[in-house]
Every structure is written in structure tokens, then in C-alpha cells.
Methyltransferase domain-containing protein
Amino acid sequence: MRCPVTLRRSPGRRPSRAGRSEEASVHDNGPTHRLSSRSAAEGDPTGRFERLYAEAARGAAEVPWDRDAPHSLLAEWTARTRPDGSGRRAVVVGCGFGRDAEHLAALGFATVAFDIAPTAVREARRRHAGSPVRYETADLLDPPADWLGAFDLVLESMNVQALPVELRERAIPAVGRLVAPGGTLLVIAAGRRDGTQVDGPPWPLTRAEIDAFAAGPLAPADVAEIVAPDGGLRWRAEFHRAR
């Protein structure tokens, strides 16, 4: 059963390190699209992430989602809900360079942040030397066994939408399996209407795909459909697991 949709307006665009806006980067298919095509042809749809980060490390590419601040929809959510991370664990899926992980750590969460791209993890550690965040290289589809059901807050922000459909169908329930009893899953994603075709990556998520995160013991608490300044859709969906 769907929970009610809340229509909201998002705030103004946040400039990125490379001068791109947060909203624009959602659909930026430049270097990532080229690298994705190469990886898909080689049967390695997630390999494009390491290729992009490696090229960026050599100065041959830019990472479109590289920004100095946490995602604005995460920052708004934490400002409104004021979560107390004391004595609680958080995990950031597909952490990239760590902007969201550092935000959660600042709220007191013992934070693990992982990415499938080793170069991204190395750069996150370099940028945040001395950080309490534990940055790890890991695969969402095959996480360490002790991560299952271990985190009070799980953040999935703009990652699942970058996967082709056959991997999205596996990744969506995999995210939920990280949530501890009594914990929260927060999903942030670009959105699209049912029946709308896109030439990804990324493939913005439909409402049905957002609803699919409520698998197993997870139940929807708040699903916000946000109309961005460019007219595009964004999702911010909160799910809770019973104790």
C-alpha cells in the first residue's frame, strides 16, 4: 500500500565544485555515459564508476556529482528531523568522495561509507584525513555479512538509479537488508513518471521502484515527490523497520 505523496518545491540550486548545479548533475550523461557504454559492452555495468574516478584522478575527467556539501535533500531532512546519532550506526551506500558520510558523522553517527570504486574510497580517505568515518570498498550486492541488519540509519542517495534494470531489481532489496531493527532507510533519487522512457544512465526511478524499497520488514513512513526548479522530479523517501 502506498503512503501519500507530498508535493514540495526544492530549494535553489547548489553550485558544485566543478560549477555544475546539483540538479543538473542528476542527468549529466557526459563522461559517465561514455564510460558506461564501454563497461556495458564488456559485461561490467558497474565498472564505469572506477573508470570515471580513475580518469578524474589523472585529471582526464570530472566527477559530475563531486560537491563540497551534502546533498541538499539530505541536509533538509536532517535539519527537520534532527536525528541524534549518539550510540547509533549509519551507513552510506555508494559514498563517492564522502560528502554525505561526513555530514552524518557530524551528527554523532558511527558512520561506515562504502563504494564499489577503490579510487573513490582512496580519495575520500585522503580528503577527510582524520575523519571518524570508516571508508570501505564494498559491493552492495555482496556486502560483508556483519553489515546485514546492522545500521540504525541507511542512506541510499542517487546510486540505484545509475544501475541497469537487472541490477536495480537486485540492488533495491539489498539496500533494505542493511537496516537494523528499529532503524531508518532514507532514499534520495531522481524521479520519472510511469511509462516515461529514458536513455540512461542514469535511469530516474519510478514511484513503483521507490515503493519497492519497502520490502521485508520495511514500511514507508514518508515519500516526498519534489518538483525541482528545472521541472524534473526528485524523490526523498523514508522507510522504517519495526523493532
